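HOLO CASE FILE
Compound: adenosine monophosphate
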Amino acid sequence: MSPGREGGGQLRPWRDHLPSGSQLQASDLVTSGTLPRAWADRWEADPEAPVLMDAASTAGPSSPAGLAHRSGTWWSGEEFDVATRRAAGRLATAGLRSGDRVLWSTGSSVSSIICHVAALRVGLVVVPANTAYTQPEIAYIVSDTGPAAVIVDDPKRGGWARDASDRDLIVTGPDLDLPDGEPARLDAARPDDPALICFTSGTTGAPKGAVLSHRNLLAATRAVCLAWRWTPADRLIHCLPVFHAHGLCVGIYGTLVSGGSALLLPGFDPDAVVDAASTHHASLFFGVPTMYHRLARSARAAEMSRLRLCVSGSAPLAADLHREVSAVIGMSVLERYGMTETLMNASNPYDGERRPGSVGFPLPGVEVKLAGDGEIGVRGPNVFDGYWERPAATADAFEDSSDGGGRWFRTGDLGTIDDGYLTIRGRSKDLIISGGFNVYPSEVEEVVLTHPGVAEVAVTGTPSDEWGEVVTAWIVADGRAPSAEDLSAYTADRLAAYKRPRIVRVVHSLPRNALGKVLRSELGR
Ligand code: MCA
Ligand code: AMP
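Model generated. Tokens follow.
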């Protein structure tokens, strides 16, 4: 099958994202080979350039590697290089070696990013984890990846990790309070070495770690930098969590690779975003649709028009919301489509029509095709090699190809091609996306089922203007059925808040197929 040829036409080629006259080849995306080398090139080229800053009002944790706490001051490239070298020295002196896993679960702060960058410079494999995870969620990741160290800003999480680990775990905060020392070698990771293990459920089953190599990360980062014309003059208002690919691989890596700068806000608040954009002469904002929904209702949304570019991703941006928010902020929001396993796949163009309801066409270096049933397939230097220690799940996730271009990753998303643009029409995978966070029905069902008032349960997503979807539990009661509040309290120790059911519907029975499997799609919404 030819890339992008089914489902009603052919996608525009990725070259259409480049400025006219560009001769870029896909292989150019991965020159420098690894992120640390690409970053080091930037810091060397312009050591004085501002890189990152914690928003002044939000005193982050103290900085690692002996540098004074610097909230409200820009870190230059040179300072960032020095701080990450020192932090790398501490990690290496603590006994961490290339290939060791480090669980990293922190809020957004320069200190935390210094730890992250230092770990990659040593060749460690970073395992990001949501700071909302409960004890069993952390324990699962620790037992699955066997980290040698954890960097957490909540000591309670460090204790949970220690309890779940069968080795002598190094536990530290983002201040990296460890003895100083020289790392053996810096920036020596090779392009195919793993850099991140990001937990996701893929199309089916239990959470598993998607292993992303340095090559994947560099290719995906360079692609968006090129497509969105990201330059050293840009300044990003960054308010996404740093433990997911959107905030980390697009927001932070993009800033460091482009040579631009980013102001780190601890979370999303429309007024704080508008204030920061104005005070710091920002040019970029990246958000999930829930943030755009809230921005559209902010009295100050028009002040966003001072930015050069606003990007939406991680969940569908409804066409109506796209039009509404674009009208109030005075610029057409650019929607793009990504996935943990593949990072960024497709984007609306920087120059040219940004079509509401569509995710545009493949980013530089990426090939996208539709299978006969409409499932979107992706291949390219951005696509991961497989799930951590799960060969069967990895084999299932890919489809072989005989055209010599390599195997296709099966996304579990369904799409159509309309006039050169890709539109996501649904998912073949069981996945709920609430406010940009993924919720896997089976994970929630497993916990809810242990409630004494629940005989059977199925979990689905109910459409919500603000959240995209909210989690609904369909329950067959055993005695008195629990309310949504009861379930929220009951699941609080085992499910992060965004996974807990917000709506409970009590039914007499659940629709099942001949094999007894629940047909979630036949439940109402
Ligand atoms: C917070 N809550 C949520 C969510 N976030 N509930 C459901 N879904 C959520 N996403 C809970 C809170 O714990 C709280 O619960 C209640 O909702 C109200 O919280 P509120 O203060 O309104 O929420 P918030 O703290 O303002 O958070 C909303 C948010 C946040 C800013 C939209 O959810 C967020 O940062 N989302 C971004 C997710 C993201 O980065 N995804 C990227 C995945 P209680 O009342 O019980 O305390 S990477 C990816 O998907 C791919 C690669 C891609 O394409 O990008
Ligand atoms: P994750 O596993 O967190 O990386 O989530 C990836 C999933 O988010 C994709 O497979 C899509 O289902 C969804 N997604 C990301 N961006 C978009 C978008 N712009 N439109 C629709 N769905 C999206």
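CASE NOTES: Residues 432-522 form a domain with the GMP Synthetase; Chain A, domain 3 fold (CATH 3.30.300.30). The chain has 13 helices and 26 strands.
CLOSED: yes
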